[in-house]
Amino acid sequence: xxxxxxIPAAKIERRDVFVESAAEVGKTFSAKAEKDGDDLVxxxxxxxxxxxxxxxxxxxxxxxxxxxxxxxxxxxxGEPLAYFTIALEGQDYTVxxxxxxxxxxxxxxxxxxAATLSGVKLTLVPLGALLTGTLSWKAAGDEVADAExxxxxxxxxxxxxxxxxxxxWVKGAA
Length: 174
Prior knowledge:
Elements: E1 11-36, E2 39-54, H1 55-62, H2 68-73, E3 85-87, E4 93-100, E5 108-125, E6 128-138, H3 142-147, E7 154-168
Antiparallel strand pairs: 1-2, 1-7, 2-6, 3-5, 4-5, 4-7, 5-6
């Protein structure tokens, strides 16, 4: 008897985006005590602005099928068809990465992989968009000291934006 290979009806895939670019780090860093269930935890908040995101990553952030943002917002040469800002209200993203300042002084802040990126606004520019948003994560005491020399500066920001799990109900079902 020959074993029949069963094809799953749904394929689950996750699209992550890695973005590395210079960005403005906010002038203030706050660490606040917040409720997490029954516990009280310290949550750090840091704003970033003008992080260059390639247009290929816009689909993930907006929640569109792959390639749709490039065809709807940009010409064949990568120029925006119109200059506007997209506010992704109520949409939070799980991120992880780092922020680096001067190489000479070794300024470095690690953003844990369970951090949240919220308040995202995307301003269309040639070949991509400038992202503005707020990073927040459960902080340890030493992170305040690590963040302080980076505040208000143009820094190298490297973020992995973990995409939502997408379910494909059509492929492989035939």
